[in-house]
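[job 4471] stage=fold_predict status=RUNNING
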Amino acid sequence: MIDLNSAFGKRAARRLEEEDIIWLTTVDRHGNPQPRPVWFLWEAGSILIFSQQDAYKVSHIRNNPRVSLNLDSARNGEDIVVLLGKAEISKSPVPQAVLDKYLVKYRLGLEMIDMTQDQFVRDYNLAIIISPEALRGY
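[job 4471] inference complete, writing structure tokens
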């Protein structure tokens, strides 16, 4: 578990609640890092990401569950937040209340890509849960 009680930890937790995009970095079968921006939900001390079943990130996680997550920095390179952790492909459905919270968060994003909530739930039906083990930044 990471420390969210320090001044930096509180700032990181606030950003995890408020930000819309986080950079998920997985490692491919050749050992190369593969960063990608994703939608996410900070929920009960973990990160929830939905994915399509056949996305590369899914096979990367199955082969190596170690991941990093980065929030964008401020324009001047400050306010760095990096999480290191372990990703798991969920074997059980996401509780409806959590799914609803996610869909509310990305309601406008779904409209921007001309996708309904039902389409999203159908197409992005694999839940990835990331348990943060380290937090760093400044």
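[job 4471] summary: The chain has one domain: 7-94+124-137.
[job 4471] exit 0
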